[in-house]
Amino acid sequence: MASTNVSRRRVLRGMLGGTAVTLGLPLLNAQLNGNGVALASGAPVPTRFGTWSWGLGMNKSIFVPKTIGANYDLPEEIESLKPVRDQINILTNFRLPTDGRPNLCHFTGWVAIRTGYIPTTKNDLPYPTVDVLISDEIGTTTRFKSLDLAATGVARDSVSLRNGDTINAPVISAVEFYRQIFGSDFQDPNSAVFKPSTKIMVRKSVLSAVGEQRRQLLASVGSDDRARLDQYFTALRELENRLELQLQRPQPAVACRIPDPVGQEAAPGLDFDLVAARHRSMTDLLVLALACNQARVFNMVYSNSSANTTRPGQAKTHHILTHEELVDQKLGYQPESSWFIRRAMESWSYFVQALASFKEGDGTLLDHSLVFAQSDQEYAKVHSIDGIPMMTAGTANGKVRTGLHIDGKGALATNVGFTLQHIMGVPAGDWGVGSLRTDREVSEILS
Amino acid sequence: MLKPCFRAAAILMLALLAKVPVTLAATEAASTPPELSVEGGPPTVRLISDAQYLNAIAYIFGPDVAPSLHFPPLRRTEGLLALGSKSAGVTAGAVQAYEAVAQTIAANVVDPHHRSFLIGCMPKVETKRDDRCATQVIARYGRLLFRRPLSKAEVKAYVDIAGSDAETLNDFYSGLSSSLSALLVSPEFLYFVETEERDPHNPKNMRLTGQAKAMRLSLLLWNAPPDEELLEAAERGQLQTREGLSKQVDRMLASPRMESGLRAFFDDMFIFEGFNALAKDAIIYPAFTQGAVEAAREQTLRTVIDHLVARNGDYRDLFTTRHTFLNSQLSPLYKLPVEQGGDWVAYDLPADAGRGGLLSEISFLALNSHPGRSSPTRRGRAVREIFLCQKVPDPPPNVDFSKFEDAAHSAKTARGRLAEHATNPVCAGCHKITDPLGLALENFDGAGEFRRTEGNELIDASGSLNGVSFSDADGLGKAIHDSPEAPRCLVQRLYAYGLGYKPGTDQRAWLEELDKRFAAHGYRIVDLLHEIVTSPAFYAVTAPKSGEVVASNGS
After folding, report:
1. Which domain, by its residues, includes A371?
2. N or C: which terminus of chain B carries fewer CB neighbours within 10 A?
3. Has residue A313 been placed in a domain?
4. In a domain, B66, yes or no
5. How sure is the predictor about B37, in pLDDT bands with cuts at 50, 70 and 90?
6. Rounded to an integer, what distance in angstroms lies between the CA atom of residue A388 and that of residue B291?
């Protein structure tokens, strides 16, 4: 297999269509970065970053642990996290000052946490989400820059964007996700025989040729459109670079295996059991996609910010319940609404367990990952955004301590996004706009 | 025709003789036809939509070459997805999707079956490059894909791709596939890039090139890039003359492809993208199957096209007409008999069915409801925003819902649940706009099925619009029919859809003129389209910013 004595050289055109290559080819410089590289020598595998989103927040009295720090208790809304409690940090009591801008229901909260900006309208999305900033840093050397999924099955359910006009569209079907990852273009990183694909070589040359049109086309349009077209050419160039990497023998991925094809799609709809089934199918495929080094950045939307999740036979969606259900005087919360939050947390627990139970090298996929979970509101009944619940899971290859309940004590919620970027190697001196601007990390979770 | 300065002087002279006080500017403004006073906006660069992409491929290569595709959705702007195309960016994932689809299409075009009729020449030796044949193919398809002739240098560049890859792969057709793929991945295919040039008749002004006019015309009327005949007219300069433009407009309006264009427009205006994820609770609404979802969308589009195109009907009558189409999937929801397994059947709804017009069709009712119940507020808001072009603000974040909880808990009907909203000053401002309209549709449940009661209480479907009261959905439909806002809204939407951007204040007078002409034509949409696409206003462009190059593609 791969020999460290192999010198750096490019794949020669003459090898295409010729003898199958059995010696390992050298790694590109871009694959050697501060996040680590998978080598036969046993160096740490690359750190993955992902986000997980659910709508309509929590009921504080039964969600927020009473204990601060390690060994935190698990109130009933998050009791499903028990199997993975020690691998999850819960972050509560962080605030979002809005600089006098209106709190746009089911919007301001998640936009502020993910982009560091308080929008003035629902069309005001000028900044990239934190996962896009991270994928710009670590996502250019894998087959996919990021993997975006929506368990809702709704094509517009995405919280990953470069700006309001450039939103990462999610895959909404497990069948489609399988085809995308493990379909005919999949290269098994552990295949004993590697033959640089002539198809990929040809595809790469096509993109290169198209890229040469850039100067002429940009000269023919106005300045406003020049930036948009330039963005297109940049994306084209990035794809060309990723195809170039696929002409090199892939890094061995010891935990990679090809799953069986997904047979049947869950029926459309937002019934909680349909959403959970989609979520499970997609999570199981995502784990293998990550293990096979298809991407390093991922986003999963369990429910969108309005969370219209339903229960069969019941007229009221989760969202309607948050506004119409009476607060049970004895319990102190809305029980039907809480029911849905518990289902969301069960899926979050499944997600974390899927990563935690997947062996990879001398650890698990979760050990080699950092996942950030957030909601859009703190208390959906009144659309409050101070204290929105957030969590992290995974140690990011040892950079993050886990198993802690962090009480933010009113610190800026953007401290979290800033911290995530630093952990993942984004060289940011500060992050956020206006009163959300910060240069402070949540040091309690750093190793 | 007198030059403007001479005209103004003549008018001033007459005014002075008549001892009528007048200002020169007012005179000038009063005499200038509104369509000529439009400044327009800069040329647009619009990202291709799924439907436009498929229409292009189907026209150029046939209907069985493109795979199913779902590119990222555009941002809905001012009520239309079409306006989002002007500012749409592309993500890394989107580019990957474009490239994958391009590969598939190109491979299909050159496969043994399709090449026999799509590739009009044969290579001398199939395992080698053949620049003569490649040039012929690339020049032909490049022109249709880019909507302009390729220059010799451009053709050579694509021929070199074909030749180089033919040599690598020892196969002419594989090389040709590469060059076709390159054309399909080029931004000149994926974006509709409008270009402008100096107006030779008025060098201080700019005008859209013939190619750009062709694109704007074809996207509005056919939701597709220009066809061969329109391209040729553009290249010959014929679209820069009134006669040449009219000839193409008449041809395109009479074409069956108009149906595709109008379907795309109404699908966008009615926000039918909601059907892509629509599902109802299977226990509460067992008749609302996945088949019914698809059928509901088709029913309304079919009704609209039949009424506006085949019958050349009055747009306003869409809100009252009982003539529609049904199939077996919709039969259980309408409780009207339709032959099982049959095709669509033209149907005149009975007068006592309580239904008439778009607002009582399953599409509108089900889309603007919750999965398990109706929503007067959603429906009322949809009526305002979709059909009357009126914006309803979002609810404020800090509403105290405790006042509504008891009402919501105990009321049997939606009217009861919403009663507090109508009187509470925090809520009434918006709910008074939406609920009187939506409550008139309460005889239809969340799936659009008719009902007389809710919770064993008789439903009160009374409401009002613009001071006109009504007692049921028929009354609401008639009120919309009679409202001046409905046809005005259609004009606004259709015009913006065609421009690709929201018209500025310079277009206000022209839009008001279009309102009048629409009325004068009996609210017939084909006549409205004719007015729009034959007016100079539709193609008006502003000068480029200082320092920007003015391009011309020789049209």
Report:
1. 41-190+255-445
2. N
3. yes
4. no
5. confident
6. 40
Using a CB–CB cutoff of 8 Å, tell me whether A103 touches chain B: yes
Instruction: Return the structure tokens found at A5.
Output: 């004595």
Q: What is the pTM of this model?
A: 0.91
Residue A367 has pLDDT above 50, yes or no: yes
Bridge partners for B46 per DSSP = B192
CA-based nearest residue in chain A for residue B283: A313
Closest chain A CA to residue B83: A165
CATH number of the domain at A72, please: 3.40.720.10
The number of distinct structural domains making up chain B is: 2
B75/A123 touch (CB, cutoff 8 Å), yes or no: yes
Cα distance from N-terminal residue to C-terminal residue, chain B = 27
Last-in-domain residue among B431, B455, B482: B482
Task: Report the gap between the CA of A70 and the closest CA in chain B (Å).
Answer: 35
Q: With contacts defined as CB-CB under 8 Å, which chain B residues touch A16?
A: 168
Q: Check residue A254 and give its pLDDT.
A: 84
| B153 Cβ under 8 Å from any chain A Cβ | no
Residue B400: CB atoms within 10 A of its CB come to 12
Q: What is the chain A residue with the closest CA to B70?
A: A155
| Cβ contacts of B181 on chain A, cutoff 8 Å | 203, 206
Residues from chain A that touch B404, judged by Cβ atoms under 8 A, are: 323-324
How far apart, in whole angstroms, are the C-alpha atoms of residue A406 and residue A65?
10
The answer to whether residue A423 sits within a structural domain is yes
Residue A215 forms part of a structural domain: no
**B contact residues 465-494, partner A, Cβ 8 Å cutoff:** none
Q: What is the pLDDT of residue A259?
A: 93
Tell me if chain B has a CB within 8 Å of the CB of A209.
Answer: yes
Nearest to B397 among A103, A148, A313 (CB): A103
**pLDDT at site B30:** 55
Q: Which of A203, A220, A382 sits opposite B549 (nearest CB)?
A: A220
Q: Flag whether B515 is in a domain.
A: no
User: Pick from B434, B452, B482: which residue ends a domain?
Assistant: B482
- B332 located within any domain: yes
**Is residue B521, in this structure, part of any structural domain at all?**
no
Q: Quote the CA–CA distance of B348 and A5 in Å, as a whole number.
A: 81
Name the token pair of A254: 């010891």
> A interface mutation test: which of B74, B281, B410, B454 has the most A CBs within 10 A?
B281
Per-residue pLDDT of B131-156, as tens digits, reads 999 999 999 999 999 999 999 999 99
Give the range of the structural domain holding residue B20, as residue numbers without chain letter: 4-32
Contacts of A232 in chain B (CB under 8 A): 89-90, 95, 187, 190-191
Q: Residue A197 domain-assigned? A: no
Predicted confidence at residue B316, as pLDDT, reads 98
Within 10 A of A346 (CB to CB), how many other CB atoms are there? 18
Structure tokens at A436: 């959300």
The answer to whether B180 and B172 are in contact (CB under 8 A) is no
- Flag whether pLDDT at B166 surpasses 80: yes
**Ranges assigned E (strand) in A27-78:** 48-53, 69-70
Tally the domains of chain A.
Answer: 1
